[in-house]
Amino acid sequence: MGWAIDVANTKRLKLTIELVPSTIWFSSLYRLMSKSNWRALKEEIYEKEGKRCYICGSTRPPFELHEFWEYDDEARVQKLVGIHHLCRLCHMVKHIGFWCHTSNGREKLEKLGLSRNDLIAHFCRVNGCSEKEFFRHEDEAFKIWEWRSKYDWRQDFGKYERFLTLKKHRRKRS
Ligand SMILES: [Zn+2]
Ligand SMILES: [Zn+2]
User: What is the pTM (predicted TM-score) of this model?
Assistant: First the structure.
């Protein structure tokens, strides 16, 4: 595996880019869960962690739930290891592939009055790093994404499995 260097670098960064392999793009907990369960989960996390961004600590709303996944590149398993509220900018950096590298995302970003530079500046501020480090990290994230997108992944929803049952059932029947 060639990701040893990246892993060391990524551990140092508080805010990282996480690109979900294209082969499992539409299989997130958010999409598989009922809206009412999602709202209940949001309330549970507000109660536990307060109304703040899990990564940068910002108390400025809106907050969006982000799914933190880990990848076992040998066994090809994607595991859901946590769900936390993020501020808008941290969440956009996580999904920068959408916001800055698709036409739909770029359009939406502009409509919100934001630019790619705002996301880069936020990344550098939260991580206390240079723009050069941002570009290096982004490149690396895309390399890993390309590699992982060649494969199918088994998904493990870990302790969040209990939220899925209903919808999974429905999915099987259709
Ligand atoms: Zn944040
Ligand atoms: Zn997210």
Answer: 0.87
